[in-house]
């Protein structure tokens, strides 16, 4: 049974959301937005109280598949993957667990194991593979004293402040349920160049230990609020071994998506209504050589791109004044927008309406009004 997905230089981890009531007031001290790691060694250390409040809300998510043996004619359910999950919202009968999409993507049946050993079935409500999140629903009462984890403000994080991770590292009978580790926020807005994401996502870097099984878990601030979801860890390249390079999805990146998934089962984004792919070339256009950029391969009939005047073969080199070379570059700008917003594109046209090279090019500018498209 797998506990994590591994790339060439990145290791994907499973983790869990935890519930935390408000912390008891610390001894009188000037209010500060950044809590340094040195507080761990003082009498005001908040970690024990955070652990007591939040650990019960971190679940182990087990994904299974059903198989049938033609020789024995017996069917069986086999666990194939597991990770962590965070209890983030109560429901009419049960509640909702936030986890990573890569934790559940290969499963067909899902179960949860709570810190006190309680087990229950769960079902996937929906997911967003663009940001590597999924939401599961369970319909049984939560263990007594377990509360949804309050969501914090990841935009308020500062490099060097205290960071606490809670998850379920390990595998099978060797899972270390409810493991708490601590460190600092090591970096912010790191580009997430990993297969976990199909959209442009900037992640939080932390040196709080996260391991196989932490994916989908909780990264907390000194108030016990959920500020990130552990999702991957850099371990090595062909000539370098890394330590303490864990990365988490900022909670502000996915807050709205969580509610969308719970309410509708899907995440809906504004789109331009065209299919594109990156093409290589010179940085600047040449008469016979189109520049590097994002080329339009298909334009949706009646969509925003067609309305604005884009054609198949057009090469987009700028979006809202930013140079774009790849689909990821383009989605960085798209993800800043909502339906009804406009995006300005700089385009080079080397092809006529029949797809033939013209032997010259036009430099064009289009303003596309984004819409929600099926």
Would you mind describing this structure in some detail?
- With 374 residues, the chain is mainly beta.
- It folds into two domains: 1-268, Beta Barrel (Thrombin, subunit H); 270-372, Roll (Pdz3 Domain), CATH 2.30.42.
- The chain is 10% helix and 39% strand.
- It is built from five helices and 21 strands.
- The chain has helices spanning 47-54, 101-104, 251-264, 304-308, 327-334, and strands spanning 10-12, 58-69, 74-90, 95-99, 109-113, 119-128, 133-138, 162-167, 179-191, 202-206, 218-220, 226-234, 246-250, 270-271, 274-279, 293-299, 315-319, 322-323, 342-351, 357-369, 371-372.
- The strands form four sheets. A six-stranded antiparallel beta barrel has the order 8-9-10-13-12-11.
- A hairpin with a 2-residue loop joins strand 17 (315-319) and strand 18 (322-323).
- The chain is globular.
- 45% of the residues are buried.
- Residues 2-32 have low confidence and may be disordered.
Short structural summary:
With 374 residues, this protein is mainly β.
pLDDT average, as an integer? 84
Quickly give the CATH architecture of the largest domain: Beta Barrel
Tell me the span between the first and last alpha carbons.
36 Å
CATH fold assignment of the largest domain? Thrombin, subunit H
* Series of H and E elements: EHEEEHEEEEEEEEEHEEEHEEHEEE
- Main pleated sheet: 6 strands, antiparallel, barrel
What radius of gyration results from the CA coordinates? 23 Å
- Give, in spatial order, the strands making up the sheet with the most strands: 8-9-10-13-12-11
Coarse structural class: mainly beta
């Amino acid at each position: 049974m797998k506990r994590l997905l591994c790339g060439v230089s990145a290791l994907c981890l499973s983790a869990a959301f935890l519930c935390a009531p408000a912390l008891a007031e610390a001894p009188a001290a000037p209010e500060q937005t950044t809590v340094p790691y040195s507080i761990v060694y003082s009498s005001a250390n908040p970690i024990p109280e955070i652990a007591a409040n939040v650990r019960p809300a971190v679940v182990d998510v087990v994904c299974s598949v059903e198989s049938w043996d033609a020789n024995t004619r017996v069917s069986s359910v086999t666990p194939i993957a597991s990770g962590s999950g965070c209890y983030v919202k109560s429901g009419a009968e049960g509640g909702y667990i936030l986890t990573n999409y890569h934790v559940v993507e290969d499963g067909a049946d899902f179960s949860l194991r709570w810190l006190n050993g309680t087990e229950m079935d769960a079902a996937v409500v929906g997911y967003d593979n663009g940001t590597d999140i999924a939401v599961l629903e369970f319909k049984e009462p939560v263990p007594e004293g377990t509360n949804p984890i309050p969501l914090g403000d990841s935009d308020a994080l500062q490099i060097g402040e205290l960071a606490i991770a809670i998850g379920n590292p390990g595998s099978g009978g060797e899972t270390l349920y409810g493991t708490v580790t601590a460190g600092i926020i090591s970096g912010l807005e790191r580009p997430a160049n990993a297969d976990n994401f199909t959209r442009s996502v900037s992640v939080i870097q932390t040196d709080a230990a996260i391991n196989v099984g932490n994916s989908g878990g909780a990264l907390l601030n000194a108030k016990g609020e959920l500020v990130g979801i552990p999702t991957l860890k850099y371990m090595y390249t062909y000539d370098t071994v890394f330590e303490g390079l864990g990365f988490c999805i900022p909670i502000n990146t996915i807050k709205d998506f969580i509610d969308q998934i719970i309410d509708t089962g899907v995440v809906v984004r504004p789109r331009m209504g065209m299919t594109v792919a990156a093409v290589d070339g010179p940085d600047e256009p040449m008469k016979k050589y189109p520049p590097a950029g994002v080329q339009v391969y298909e334009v949706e009939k009646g969509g925003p791109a067609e309305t604005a005047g884009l054609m198949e073969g057009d090469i987009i080199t700028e979006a809202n004044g930013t140079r774009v070379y790849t689909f990821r570059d383009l989605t960085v700008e798209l993800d800043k927008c909502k339906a009804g917003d406009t995006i300005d594109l700089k385009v080079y046209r080397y092809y006529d309406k029949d797809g033939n090279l013209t032997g010259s090019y036009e430099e064009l500018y289009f303003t596309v009004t984004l819409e929600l498209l099926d």
